[in-house]
Amino acid sequence: MRRRSVPIRDWGERGLIGWLRRQRQRVPFSPAYRLLKGIGDDAAIIAGRGSGKLLVSCDALVEGVHFDRQRASGADVGWKAGAVNISDIAAMGGRPLYLLVSVALPAGIERAWAQGFFRGLLAAARRYGAAVIGGDTVASPGPVFVDVAVIGECARPVMRDGARAGDALFVTGTLGDSAAGLISLQRRSGVRALERHHLRPQPQVEIGHLLAAKGIPTAMLDMSDGLSRDIRNLCDASRCGAQIQAGAIPISRSVRRFCARAGLDPLTLALHGGEDYRLLFAVSPRKVAVVTELEHCQRIGTLIEKGYYVQSEAGIEPFGEGAWSHFAAE
Questions:
Q1: Looking at residue 53, which CATH number applies to its domain?
Q2: Is 311 exposed, middle or buried (0-12, 13-18, 19+ CB in 10 A)?
Q3: According to DSSP H, which parts of 92-224 are helical?
Q4: Per-residue pLDDT for 13 more than 50?
Q5: Residues 145, 72: one domain?
Q6: 303, 282 in Cβ contact below 8 A?
Q7: Which of 35, 62, 136, 180 is most buried, judged by most C-beta within 10 A?
Q8: To the nearest whole percent, how much of the chain has pLDDT over 70?
Q9: What percentage of the chain exceeds 90 in pLDDT?
Q10: Full strand arrangement of the beta sheet holding 297-304
């Protein structure tokens, strides 16, 4: 019997990744470099020489999906391509070392745009102490396509699967700024500070490294898909649920002012907006006091046995997933 064809949009990004994780692979063994963690986290972990560990990850950006050349300069796209990869290293508590970039460009693209792209990528690498060491450039018959691979290092990587019910849930920095910036760009509102949040994300390398070095998080990831989705990503890995406090979610004055003028709900942007690239991490009850003394770390809730709930003045309600999803249906 012929199998029914199922479009990938009915499977979803998580379905695809879940299937890939279940495929059996013969992992090559090297006495010098041993795989400690593969598919399913922000980066793979490889045991290096001595006590250090290598972190390896990659992310792609596609014109028309992740950026619009009418709104983003070449330098903006280059910076973002580097920053989103470096953020994966920050999510593990590491520091970035090297970047490799492959970019497919239409033959008719302006030379200035291409030069700007590489200047932006190099600037992001320099800002976070990394170097661009190679890659590939090819022609594209369609949109611009960028794929960056990053290599980092960390002595004590933090993964997603170590949290337990009862742990406190924290974020670093405010949420919703990138989503508000994207709307400002789309509506040509000209709110430059918010637009910069979207075009030039700032990976949380220093605070991520500090948290990992102190052994504080039981689980951690960076928020690219939106708080509502990324809470589920962390909880799925750790096999628990979460209850968050709506009033505790940090939202900047800029976002609140913009939403008031634009007729938007700031809490919706903070919950479901995505691309903030802040860190979401869990902390055992005995270490909560240590975290509250750190700058830019805000407690937003607690991990529970199962379910996903938000508490507000209206009461406690389940929260859905309005966040970004590749392939649309999940």
A1: 3.30.1330.10
A2: middle
A3: 111-127, 177-187, 192-199, 205-213
A4: yes
A5: yes
A6: yes
A7: 180
A8: 87
A9: 74
A10: 217-222, 279-283, 168-172, 297-304, 241-245, 308-312, 315-318
